Amino acid sequence: QSALTQPASVSGSPGQSITISCIGSSSDVGNYNFVSWYQQHPGKAPKCLIYEVSNRPSGVSNRFSGSKSGNTASLTISGLQAEDEGYYYCASYTGRSTRLFGGGTKLTVL
Amino acid sequence: EVQLVESGGGLVQPGGSLRLSCAASGFTFNVWSMNWARQAPGKGLEWVSYITGDMRTIHYADSVRGRFTISRDNAKNSVYLQMNSLRDEDSAVYYCARGLQAALDFWGQGTTVTVSS
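^ Those are the sequences you sent over. The predicted structure of the assembly is below.
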């Protein structure tokens, strides 16, 4: 099963907002509200930012928000900060009871 | 404080076996599902396996089904991944992660598995 499709890289300046897309299919993103997003800094473990499309775990900044339309999920980061630089991954539950990650997006804060 | 600590990684020859362990603390372990995920060097994340708290439901990625076995011991607050018939492409950092619905809400720091002759 192919990974969900994410842009390889995005960039933004401090204070700006950016959006990362995650394109799946009717077998995963489009059929289940079980999309999640993760942040990973180099050499570190991933951190969950969003679960069930738009819910934030306790302690995650409200600058991070998630949404979904059809087969595409999105992560928006508002008020971009230097510490937001890193890699971002989406994931979805699938019709085969598996979880599928996206290929990852590198965020650069200019 | 939630803590997940993986162990058991190392160097193994192709075709060999390895058993990973993950010790959990800071939450009521037996009511939470657990996952294993991995990340090959310089690559993205890949989900590997899932087990519910009551051990009634287990899922595997196609890439490991039939070779890997997930299990847990709720008395020891631990989850395991038995890896058999290892291949070069199984080389990765292996993470255990707590399951929140279909998400992985808290991750350990990982243990490195290298499959090489």
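The mean pLDDT of chain A is 96. Chain A touches chain B through 26 residues (CB under 8 Å).

Shout if you want it in another format.
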